[in-house]
From TrEMBL:
Cofactor: pyridoxal 5'-phosphate
Protein name: Threonine synthase N-terminal domain-containing protein
Organism: Balaenoptera physalus
GO molecular function, one term: pyridoxal phosphate binding
SUPFAM superfamilies according to UniProt: Tryptophan synthase beta subunit-like PLP-dependent enzymes
Lineage of the species this protein comes from: Eukaryota, Metazoa, Chordata, Craniata, Vertebrata
Amino acid sequence: MWYVSTRGMAPRVDFEGALFSGYAPDGGLYMPEELPQLDRETLRQWSVVSYPSLVKELCSLFIGPELIPRDDLNDLIDRAFSRFRHKEVVHLSRLRNGLNVLELWHGVTYAFKDLSLCCAARFLQYFLEKRKKHITVVVGTSGDTGSAAIESVQGAENVDLIVLLPKGRCTKIQELQMTTVLRENVHVFGVEGNSDELDEPIKAVPDSHPSDPETCQLSEAVTSQSVSDEAITQTMGRCWEENRYLLCPHSAVAVSYHYQQADRRQPRY
């Protein structure tokens, strides 16, 4: 499996190369050169497996056995999810009127990014131990990326983590999650600006250290502003009244859309 830049101006790399590159040299993001084709029987079989088992199957399509043998891959994923509070890792709650909520908050930091970063950190450390190398990871965050990244690598001997935390733009809980981790390999700095404004200096890190290829970047660049805070609050209240189920604000964004569609389908008299 090869990976190419979304801008099409960088050499293709394997999974290990994409993992350690962060942004591609041309400023794009790496994506698979080809997407695996799945038949109906495979999808049928996958429809009944656990979430960790599904992750193993999917990862095996994008990470060749010459890079991570299947037994090692399975072990890495099992260890990645070992700290999740729910035995299913990802749990589906079926509520009233066709409302289903996929719970992505059972990780250590209660953020959905625990799901991806716990695996990414295991893959990073696997290659680093194999190559006998050390890297510094630079993270720009508005809250949940930073805390999830910290939890995934804190205490690791072959990774130093630098987190750039926008002053006054994170919740108190998120700020405490990041600033109270007393590990020698975790370094958190408060900076001016928002998470989107942190992208540019993070992108410039490899250019400012061209002789140091062992610098990896993670950046939180996607946010949602399609639902107002008031609508989120109202959605959380409605879900509690109808189901006695407490939504997190992230889930409330999607459930708000569900309620809008459901209300439109109601007959008008």
